[in-house]
Design a protein that fits this description.
By secondary structure, the protein is of the alpha+beta class. The chain is built from 20 helices and 20 strands. The termini are far apart.
Length: 542
């Protein structure tokens, strides 16, 4: 068997060298060295019959689909029964051996291979019907697209995006377009209609269940199934073999490690190693009986609510953020937590000075668990914290949210225009939020149109701090380039709630990139587009 670790190492080195070369930066290796490593990779792929996605030996065929086809799973994918008690895991395991592994927090994908080639990939969906994402799976990081085993094989894995990738991607998005957690980002990335976007998101897949491998004898052991998948080149979820005697200390080992993992997980899975015994137990209507999930009991700390910060955005939405006395949770100090909306503020009956309990959801995101005082005395601001105009409470999907409806609110203008000039929209360089704030304050920019007439204020701008003739000319050059753009960039730049860069491309493509159709689209026409729901369609037309 070829060295899979060496193959992965070669792919990383060669792809890094190519990226540097094609970006016109200093080369990190000579052509001779590159060719030598490339030939080594080709040789290893031939020897093993294994080809990983992302290998420079493969030409990636990017493809844009109009919609994701649906497919019914051969057997329903059930959820797992759950516990937060280690002693329940001990009782459940009894005198059997089990495999304890991470419960990954991403999107479950079913992969089918025939004759050593990836045949198709389908999301879990509702457990009965999923979406076919084969084109996207082919660009997952390190996923085998060719494997040594030539029989019919089906496995399940979790597509995830690491925390480091999540932070990098969020940093490139405007505040309103940012994703709440890696799972949401991964779900959106895996289900893209354009797999070039998926490729840029660096989605990884961790194999966790081998459903079927035609003709292979696993000697009645789930551990052997795991190792078989590893030998086929899959990144297998980390696991430990456990008994009733050592499971408590093994759970402790996992709970220490979760704090430093780069990948998202929301607990553990315990599976009987004895395949026949596990299968003989069958399943309930909801759960298979051969496995159980374990969730950590959240570490909760008591603290005092000091203030509520009201954060205004470009859409007019004003988000409540709780500021409390700092406490230690899961090894870090926390002092603030998003409360998300007015409904949650009221449900918690919050008031300044209340004693509250806070925790980290999935050991990561600070949240308020309970309000022990329940004074219910917090005043919902009737004025916008930025412009001072009257606020209004809207009810959306049975959730109350606070809005500033002043179209001239500076928060709206700065955030909206900042999105409009951003890289994925009109791509006008040299207009930071600080610069835009100055331009808006001086009256040079009142709406998007004014950006294209800043030459009317040439003399005034060139006397501003941080601006000289060179800076102004550079800005003007960038503005001139932005006059020629694509419909999708323009639609995204308008900042329509729910319409991100990817959705803007899907809508424009579905409407034939025809400016009249795009500008005059009706709700009924929009909801026919795969991935555009009724809420998004209404917001687009409004």
């Amino acid at each position: 068997m070829a060295d899979i670790g060496r193959m992965k190492e070669l792919i990383d080195i060669l792809n890094r060298a190519s990226a540097v070369y094609y970006q016109g930066k200093d080369e990190i290796m000579s052509n001779f060295e590159y060719d030598k490593l490339y030939d080594e990779l080709v040789s290893l792929e031939k020897e093993s019959g294994l080809v990983l996605a992302g290998s420079p030996t493969q030409k990636v065929g990017y493809e844009i689909l109009s919609e994701l086809p649906k497919q019914t799973h051969p057997s329903p994918m059930l959820s797992l029964d759950k516990t937060k008690q280690v002693n329940e895991l001990e009782s459940w395991l009894g005198d059997k051996e089990g495999l304890l592994s991470w419960k990954m927090d991403g999107l479950t994908v079913v992969l089918t291979y025939e004759n050593g080639q990836l045949l198709n990939a389908v999301t879990r969906g509702n457990g009965v019907v999923g979406e076919v994402i084969t084109n996207n799976a082919k660009v997952f990081k390190k996923l085998p697209i060719s494997i040594p085993f030539k029989g019919h094989m089906v496995l399940r894995g979790e597509a995830v995006i690491t925390y480091s990738e999540f932070e990098k991607i969020n940093a490139s998005l405007s505040e309103e377009e940012q994703y709440k957690n890696p799972r949401n980002l991964c779900s959106g990335s895996v289900r893209q209609l354009n797999n070039e976007i998926t490729a840029k998101r660096n989605v990884e897949l961790y194999a966790f269940t081998l459903v079927e491998a035609e003709g292979v004898d696993f000697e009645n052991s789930q551990k052997n199934k795991m190792e078989f998948m590893r030998k086929q080149g899959f990144q297998v979820v980390e696991y430990k073999l456990v008994t009733r005697e050592n499971i408590a200390e093994t759970v402790e080992w996992f709970s220490d490690k979760v704090k430093t993992n780069d990948f998202p997980s929301d607990g553990l899975v315990l599976l009987y190693d004895d395949i026949e015994y596990g299968d003989s137990l069958g399943s309930t209507a909801k759960f298979p009986r051969n496995a159980i999930a374990f969730k950590w009991a959240d570490e909760v700390a008591k603290t005092k609510l000091l203030e509520m910060e009201w954060s205004a955005s470009r859409t007019g939405l004003i988000n409540p953020v709780a500021i409390f006395e700092p406490v230690e949770l899961e090894g870090t100090t926390v002092s603030r937590a998003s409360v998300h909306n007015i409904s949650i503020v009221r449900e918690l009956k919050l008031g300044i000075g209340d004693e509250i309990e806070v925790y980290k959801a999935n050991m990561i995101i600070p949240q308020i668990a309970k309000n022990l005082t329940e004074s219910d005395s917090l005043e919902i601001p009737d004025k916008c914290p930025v412009c001072g105009e009257k606020t209004v409470i809207h009810k959306e999907n049975d959730v109350e949210v606070l809005f500033c409806e002043n179209p001239d609110c500076l928060a709206k203008k700065i955030k909206s225009i900042s999105l409009f000039v951003s890289r994925d929209a009109m791509n006008i360089e040299g207009l930071s939020e600080a610069t835009l704030e100055k331009f808006i304050f001086h009256g040079y920019v009142k709406d998007f149109t004014d950006l294209f007439h800043l030459d009317n204020y040439r003399d005034e701008i060139m006397t501003m701090d941080g601006f000289g003739e060179r800076s102004f000319l550079k800005l003007q050059s960038s503005i001139e380039k932005a006059r020629k753009t694509t419909l999708a960039r323009l639609v995204y730049g308008l900042g329509i709630p729910g319409i991100g860069s990817a959705n803007a491309k899907v809508i424009c493509r579905a409407l034939g990139n025809d400016s009249q159709r795009v500008l005059q689209a009706e709700e009924a026409e929009l909801v026919e587009i795969q991935g555009v729901g009724a809420v998004m369609a209404k917001s687009y037309v409004d």
